[in-house]
Request: fold
Amino acid sequence: MLYNPYVKNQILKVPFAKRVKNNIKGLGTASQLVFETFVCIFKGQIDIKNTVIQMVEAGYRSFPIILLTSFFTGMVLALQVGSATANLFNEPVYIGMITGFALVMELGPVLTAVVITGRVGAAITAEIGTMKVTEQIDALYTLGTDPVRYLAVPRFIACILMLPLLTAVSNIVGVYGGLVVSNLSWSIPSTVYMGDILNVMTVRTFLHGFIKSFFFAGILVTVACHKGFQCSGGAEGVGKATTSSVMVSMILMLVADYFLSDLLVSLKIS
Reply:
């Protein structure tokens, strides 16, 4: 058979075109899911019991891992800042200010969102995906129950409410983790450490990271629910959907983090 580069190029273009088509279709279905969810919320079609259960799962049961992660993040950050400033100025300075700003504006919201994505986002996709491949969602339609109202709405509300709260807790615990290291490793009094933070940081500094957490929560729960509802292919499909959900959520969060930071800085919310 003669080599025909035109035919080869056409074959190579087909998968890419199909991927683009699937991505556009996925964006449309995700947008539709978000629209239907907010319609249910504004109409007051909220399952209170299921929502509380999801809030406990997303919030209360996530506290231990958030506390552990943020505490040691603050400790590592204070240790590195102290080491860097000691090399530059022959003594550790500005540890409280740098640690506080880094945690409250960036590391707190981002790390909290990433941890919750791995724990809650993956669980949401796996639960809804399992229901989809076992035809339980079709059964809900048969019984006259809206799957979006029953499955998506409680999870949307739980994530939107709990992630900002977890972010605030993460900021506080991280700052105290830095306080421990600055006091034990660098012999900096706690009053000096906290003074560096309180004298420089304002409410706008806190709002910078707090506002981000709402957007991260929206990304997390939208991707997780969308991947679950679009799942197919049995147990293998559930695994692939869960992996894809975590990966896509983290990428979108990191991309959104830059644009949100740029917008908030331009609005002087920093």
